[in-house]
Write a sequence for this structure.
């Protein structure tokens, strides 16, 4: 796929590994992709099976691999935090819809520091991930945190080793707040990181940070909560000190405008007094044309169910669901354009 290879060449080796498809049954729907929304995908899958007696398999393998598998037509749907443009969707005969939004938060393992005590600016955060700030008591960090005692402890950066939409969003933020990061590394799902140790998935970063004193990483907020990790505050674009929460994520999400045909847009470093600056949108990808009519129908029914019934579970898991009725109706109109191999609409 041209889009992925063009923007993320460092991930080509990873994506060239063999993809083992699901063992498929008539009453199953197979999806893969981002680990960012995996907690809510699992929750929705369990509820859907309980209500509809149809099993939904969701494998969190990263956005990049999810894009690869939906393009290869080995799964029914994929979820990605790396939004595709309309030309890229058309190239691979795909449709894309925003699914849930959520916050990405830096997490630390620093003795004596609890969540909300430490605050950083975007530029200082970037300098840490650039390897320019190497100790926690560096003057740049101390100047932002005069009321707390910081240890002379080496910083260990933890980053993703897989092709990751979480990394795509995180590096997108760093590129906006740090000209040096933008020039040297830019935005990507898989990078040649300047410093640090690699871990697979949001869960891998959460586990590694929990085990590594002096470390800093970045995860979807739900993973920070479940692993009881220490979160930091960030100084947002308006110059305000904000903590990660569903409310501050929502302040950023409210500025979304879904006018593009692909629905893709960035939700990082947006203005707003209480906007959290690193918010990601997960998108669901489906085939615009399917040879397997029944599989396509089951997939569309699952999407209908999510947008009709999944909002409360998403909010309880600290995600922001799509609840705009006009937008959901626009999605439904697009679903009716999905066709089988004879050119007939799958949904009547």
């Amino acid at each position: 796929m041209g889009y992925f290879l063009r923007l993320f060449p460092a991930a080509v080796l990873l994506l060239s590994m063999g993809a083992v498809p699901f063992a498929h049954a008539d009453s199953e729907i197979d999806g893969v992709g981002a680990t960012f929304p995996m907690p809510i995908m699992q929750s929705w899958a369990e509820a859907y099976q309980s209500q509809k007696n149809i099993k939904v398999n969701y494998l969190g393998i990263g956005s990049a691999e999810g894009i690869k598998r939906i393009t290869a037509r080995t799964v029914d749907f994929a979820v990605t935090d790396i939004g595709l443009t309309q030309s890229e969707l058309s190239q691979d005969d795909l449709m894309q819809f925003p699914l849930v939004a959520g916050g990405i938060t830096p997490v630390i393992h620093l003795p004596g520091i609890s969540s909300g005590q430490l605050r950083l600016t975007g530029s200082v955060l970037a300098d840490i991930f650039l390897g320019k700030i190497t100790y926690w008591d560096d003057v740049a960090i101390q100047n932002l945190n005069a009321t707390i005692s910081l240890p002379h402890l080496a910083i260990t950066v933890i980053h993703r080793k897989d092709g990751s939409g979480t990394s795509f969003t995180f590096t997108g933020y760093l590129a906006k707040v740090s000209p040096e990061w933008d020039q040297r590394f830019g935005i990507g799902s898989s990078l040649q990181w300047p410093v640090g140790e690699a871990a697979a998935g949001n869960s891998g970063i959460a586990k590694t940070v929990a085990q590594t004193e002096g470390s800093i990483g970045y995860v979807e907020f739900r993973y920070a909560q479940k692993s009881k990790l220490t979160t930091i505050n960030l100084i947002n674009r308006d110059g305000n000190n904000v903590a990660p929460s569903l409310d501050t994520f929502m302040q950023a999400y409210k500025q979304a405008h879904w006018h593009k045909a692909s629905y893709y847009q960035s939700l990082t470093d947006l203005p707003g007094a209480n906007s959290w600056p690193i918010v990601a949108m997960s998108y669901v990808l489906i085939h615009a044309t399917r040879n397997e009519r029944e599989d396509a129908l089951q997939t569309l029914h699952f999407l209908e169910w999510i947008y009709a019934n999944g909002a409360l579970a998403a909010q309880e898991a600290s995600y922001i669901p799509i609840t705009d009725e006009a937008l959901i109706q626009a999605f439904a109109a697009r679903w009716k354009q999905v066709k089988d191999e004879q050119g007939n609409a799958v949904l009547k």
User: Anything to note?
Assistant: The domain at 2-102+279-340 is CATH 3.40.190.10 (D-Maltodextrin-Binding Protein; domain 2). The longest strand covers residues 94-108. The longest helix spans residues 293-309. Residues 92 and 244 are 36 Å apart (CA to CA).
